[in-house]
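[Backbone geometry]
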Amino acid sequence: MTRSVFPTSLPVERPVDGVKRFHIWTIGCQMNEAESAKAAALLRQAGYVSALREEDADIVIVNTCVVRQQAEEKAAGHIGALARLKQRNPNVRIAVTGCMVTGQEEKLSARFPHVDLFYGPSEFERLVEIAPELRDVDFDLAELPHYYDEGTSDPEVTAFVPIIYGCNFVCSYCIVPYRRGRERSRPMADIVAEVERLAARGVREITLLGQTVNAYGHDLPGQPDLADLLAAVHEVDGIERIRFLTSHPKYFSDKLIAAIRDLPKVCEHVNLPVQSGDNEVLRRMRRNYTVEYYRERIAKIREMIPDVTLSTDIIVGFPGETEEQFQHTYQLLEDIRFDKVHVAMYSPRPGTLSARWEDDVPRAEKRRRHQAIEKLQEQICRERNERYRGQVVEVLVDGMARGRWRGRTRGNTLVFFESPDSWKGKLVHVRITQVSPWYLLGELIEPQTSHGGVQQYVAVSR
C-alpha cells in the first residue's frame, strides 16, 4: 500500500516543467496491485509520469478494498482526506476504483463529491474520462487485457499476471463475487504473450493471480486447466520462477500437484486457504469441503512434493463459532504446521449472507483467538525455520531494505544479506546464519566444484 502525507495549510507547490503526472494509492490483494500497475502503464502510454507525492500529481487514483472492514475504513479515510488536496488544487483529477466501487457509484459520489471518477475493477477504458490523452493511444483497450510499459529504465524483478477474474463460489462471508462478478478466464495465448513481454523487460518471476486461481480454464474452449497453463508459461525464456495465488481446496488436483513437482520453474510453495478447522463452521462458511478432505489434500501435496512450503488463511470469530470449534482450528494448525498463516478476525461485509446473522463473538474474544493463533504460528515458524540454519538457499533478489539486499527462496521465505555490489534481479546463493520466525539472515556465497565433482560453496568477500 502507498501512503502519502501533505500539509493542510500551505498552498500546493507542483513541478512546473509541463510534464503531467499521476499517483496511485493501493490497498488490498495482489489483484489490486496488478490493476494499479495496468492503470499506471496506460497513463505512461498517454505521456504521464509517476509522482511520488499526491500533491505533485495531475491525476490521483485510489484503488480500494472491502474484503475486511479495516481495509474499507482505511480507503474511505484516504479518499475523504483528498478533499483538502482538491480544495487547494481544483485542477487535480481524482479517481476511485477497486471493490468499493462496484454497484456503489451513486452512494460514493454523494459521500465524496470531490472525486471526479468512480470506475469498477478492470474498467480501464473509463480512465479516458479524466485523461483524454488516452484517446490518442494507438491500441484498443477492450482487446488488450493487460499492457505493461516497455520503456522503464529500472525493470521490476517480479510481476503479477491476472489469469482469471471473479469467483463462482459464494462463501457466506465474502463480498468478492458481488464486486468482481463470475469467473472469466483469460485466453492462454494472451497470458503467455504477456509473460513474454514481461520477460523481455527483465522480469524474472511471475505470480499468476485469481480469486480462485486453480479454477482457471473451465470456461474456455477445450477447458485447459491451471496445470496446462503452468506448462505453457514454463516455456517462456527469461522467466526463472512461477508462482500462483489463491487456490481453492476443491480444485487442487493431483494433476496440479504433479505440475508443481515436475516443472522446474514452478516454485515449491502452495497457498491453500482453509479458513476454519471445524466442519460445521466450514458448512456455514459455504466452503464446499470438509476438514478431512483438506487434510487429505495437504498430505498428498507433501507426499508428492516433500520440500514444499505451505501457507493458509484463517478467520476467527465467525458467527456462532464456539470455543470448541476454535480449538479444532487451533489443533489443525498444530498438526499441519504451516510455514505461514494469515489470520483475520471476522467482520461482517454488507451484502453477504453472513452479514444477516448475529455477529455474536465479542470483539475481545475474537482478539484473544487471533492472538492465540499468532503466538502458536510464531512458535511453529521459528521451529520450522531452524532447518535452514547453516543451509545454502537459492534467493531471487528483488531489492534492498534497511541497507541489506532482500529476496525470497523458492519456498517464499524472506532472506536478507549484505553486500556492497548490485544484486537486484539476480539468483544468488546464501548460507543462512541467523533465523527468526519471519525471515532469514545469511551470507552471500558462490558455488565451486571440487576435483571430486562435489559442489562446495565459498563465502563472497565484502
